[in-house]
């Protein structure tokens, strides 16, 4: 927890907040802070700054906020990610939130196992929890939007044109394609397939929407590694 | 398992191999291959190619190898990594092996918890297992070397000069430093600190050995994310 993240509702009119949950425990047991100490804090979808500890009790921490600066700039990317297997989804959500992705589409593709859509990891509260951990890690406040698209073809044919308008459109796919570009400095829509990759038909559908296939070399990376490697190289 | 990885001792004079372990199960239950099918295969620290299934029994798979090509090129990097917490170590070993790191030094620093050195994850057989998973993932055969340095100062002062000779020397550290360079195309020695970072004294010791501090932006990444992000950007 590099940033204490609060909801607007938790903050009173004096800019104070009283915590009794895992954040209270983390401040007391991991950070080991006492009255008068400060830590970095921010409000979800709002400003960052510091929080000063006014009071420490065994079961609560009371803090006074001083918020004055913008969170880090978001990555200018819309990420289209074939739904990963549940454990990898959890980690990928934290990685990509920490890296600054603000718009994520989790989509079905041919090689996504249908059972993944039934996983408890897809419950809104579980997704939210991983996004919060990613924000706390990266000292960011701006929650990513997460969208679900369970039908690939209608999504690509009917919705992607406007979603990806005025952006560079890339699909990461192993094979005889150009190397993934570096440091692109422009708005991007990036599609990443499941374990086993997109099928040819899906690549064709994406190409018909203006996507270019690019590759990262002959090493095949796990989805969570590929997401980080692609974003680090592109931005 | 994108590559079936074998030891030289498993292969008989006719180039055949008989498997009864998890690889046999994976071929039968995950890949669902039958007699006459082929899959990609390689020998640890040796060549890659294909294996044809000669025989499938409930408890064994017999294959014939045809190995003829070199594994993917290694990354020209020596990675100095402050020992991560055990679960993160496991994942980091798989990520960095999949990315092509062949020389890894796991080192103690001030902010590495001493208890991490007692973890069962540091047993040679556990380390080996994660390296093998990373190689299978990336279709590589060349095992990384892993070294342990439990005393930071003697390692940096007495051993690092020769270890890092003729390489670009970078230490990733958040702060007011130049951005991490891209696409460096040269031999690199890269130091990455623990959660909480290096302490100033450690940065000074590394600088005295010719290391330049570089940073990845204001977002603080977990060690496993940072390793992938740095390598993807540098190579």
UniProtKB/TrEMBL annotation, chains A, B:
Stored CDD domains: RsmE-like
The keyword Methyltransferase appears for this protein: yes
MF terms (GO), sorted A to Z: methyltransferase activity
This enzyme's EC code(s): 2.1.1.193
GO BP of this protein: methylation
SUPFAM superfamilies: alpha/beta knot
UniProt entry keywords in alphabetical sequence: Cytoplasm, Methyltransferase, rRNA processing, S-adenosyl-L-methionine, Transferase
Subcellular location: Cytoplasm
Signal sequence, renumbered to the chain: none
Keyword Transmembrane belongs to the record: no
Predominant place of localization: cytoplasm
Reactions mediated catalytically: uridine(1498) in 16S rRNA + S-adenosyl-L-methionine = N(3)-methyluridine(1498) in 16S rRNA + S-adenosyl-L-homocysteine + H(+)
Residue ranges of domain Ribosomal RNA small subunit methyltransferase E methyltransferase in the record: 72-234
Known function: Specifically methylates the N3 position of the uracil ring of uridine 1498 (m3U1498) in 16S rRNA. Acts on the fully assembled 30S ribosomal subunit.
Family as reported in the entry's similarity comment: Belongs to the RNA methyltransferase RsmE family.
Protein name from the UniProt record: Ribosomal RNA small subunit methyltransferase E
Species of origin: Marinospirillum insulare
Lineage: Bacteria, Pseudomonadati, Pseudomonadota, Gammaproteobacteria, Oceanospirillales
């Amino acid at each position: 927890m590099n940033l204490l993240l609060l909801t607007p509702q938790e903050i009173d009119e004096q800019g104070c907040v009283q915590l009794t949950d895992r954040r209270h425990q983390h401040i007391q047991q991991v950070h080991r802070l006492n009255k008068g100490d400060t830590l970095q804090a921010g409000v979800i979808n709002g400003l960052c700054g510091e929080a000063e500890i006014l009071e420490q009790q065994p079961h609560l921490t009371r803090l006074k906020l001083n918020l004055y600066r913008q969170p880090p700039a978001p990555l200018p990317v819309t990420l289209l990610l074939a739904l990963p297997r549940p454990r990898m989804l959890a980690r990928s959500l934290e990685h990509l939130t920490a890296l600054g992705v603000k718009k994520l589409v989790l989509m079905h593709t041919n090689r996504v196992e249908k059972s993944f859509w039934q996983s408890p990891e897809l419950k809104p509260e579980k997704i939210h929890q991983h996004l919060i951990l990613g924000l706390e890690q990266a000292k960011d406040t701006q929650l990513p939007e997460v969208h679900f698209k369970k039908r690939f073809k209608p999504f690509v044919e009917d919705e992607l044109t406007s979603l990806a308008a005025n952006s560079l459109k890339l699909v990461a796919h192993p094979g005889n394609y150009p190397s993934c570009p570096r440091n692109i400095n422009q708005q991007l829509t990036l599609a990443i397939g499941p374990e086993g990759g997109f099928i040819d038909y899906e690549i064709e559908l994406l190409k018909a929407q203006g996507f270019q296939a690019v590759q990262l070399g002959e090493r095949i990376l796990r989805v969570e590694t590929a997401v980080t490697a692609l974003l680090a190289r592109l931005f």
